[in-house]
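Lay summary. Proteins are chains of building blocks that fold into shapes, and those shapes determine what they do. In this project we predict the shape from the chain. Here is one chain we studied, written as its sequence of building blocks.
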Amino acid sequence: LLEFPTAVLLVPILWLTTLLPRRCRLAIADAAGYVGWLLHRRRRLIVHRNLDIAFGDSKSTEEKSHIGLRAFQYSARSVATVVSECKLASSPETIDALVHSSPDVDRLITGCTDQPTAVLGGHFGDWEMGHIFLQHRGLKLVVVAKKLRNRVLNALLKRRRESRGGFIPNAGALGKLRALLRERRNVALLPDQNARSRGRFFNFFDVAASTHFEWARLLMRSGYRVVFMACVWNRDGSYYFHAKEILALGTSAPTTKICLL
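And here is the predicted shape, written in a compact code that computers can read:
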């Protein structure tokens, strides 16, 4: 019932922020993330539980709270990235100035344009900016990701992602993914959501966690090159783009173990 009113309020506000300088947009996003951290008690408890599992006693409660708060703020910044995407697309030099990477990453991305590649990412850093960066470098991707619960906002995000090469909701996406792999299309997967009973459970920090096992098996059998990529925030508001090959073209044995949960 709240979907439409939420979108009616949020979309105009987000659009108005595109008229502001980038520094102001980031400040507004950080403030929105802070409010979300304070109000969303259930999510806050989940974040604290996950950080307790990951860090144990090696970090204090205050340090864990700071990490959780920044995660909320970075999520809000990712929304700001999507909204201001038209500005970025019309100014390629802005993307080059904002996103830094090593020469190894440049060579890896160049290789992806010549070989069928599956990119693995997740909801850490700013995936949307990473996707924009890859498109800017000439790598077109069909993205498989989870739909937002808010249908109006999901339609907005879907249009943005499709403008960069395509978007498939992960519900029932396995068959469509098989077809894309047969066509040797470049794909991107964001498989870090809880797969629940549909997935397979693995030990993750001594906790049974469900992940999308069928997707992984399909990639292993496809002969695709699999690359892990992440676009993370720097302290000054710029980005650093990471990329690492974890499955070479035509092989079935990963060179690096990465767990996305």
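What the prediction tells us: Strands lie at 99-100, 117-120, 142-145, 167-169, 187-189, 200-204, 207-211, 225-233, 239-247.
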